[in-house]
Amino acid sequence: MSRRCELTGKGPLSGYNSSHANNKTKRRYLPNLNDVTLQSQTLGRGVKLRICSSALRTVDHRGGLDAFLAKAKDSELSPNALKVKREIAKAQAAEA
Fold first, then answer.
1. Between vectors from CA 62 to CA 53 and to CA 38, what angle results, nearest 5°?
2. Residue 88 and residue 42: Cα distance in Å, rounded?
3. How many CB atoms lie within 10 A of CB 95?
4. Are 57 and 8 in contact (CB under 8 A)?
5. What's the CATH class of domain 13-95?
6. How does pLDDT run across 31-71, given as a tens digit for each residue?
7. Could you tell me how far CA 17 lies from the centroid of its own chain?
């Protein structure tokens, strides 16, 4: 399982630990990933995703999963999230 957010594409960064004596050792900064089930109003079901906490706040801010995916770039989304985005677009087109 990759350490990458399925909605924002945020992944690990690299840097250094710095001791008091200013010795540097390599380290990785990992994103704060959580397994969550987000509800889609259009599909009427929950969608399981592995997203970072900042993405979860952004989903709430934009008004839910459907609104977030409508604005999201396809290049940042995981294949699983892209599939959900297409399902939502198809369901919304069928309603209209």
1. 55
2. 6
3. 7
4. no
5. mainly beta
6. 999 999 999 999 999 999 999 999 999 999 999 999 999 99
7. 27
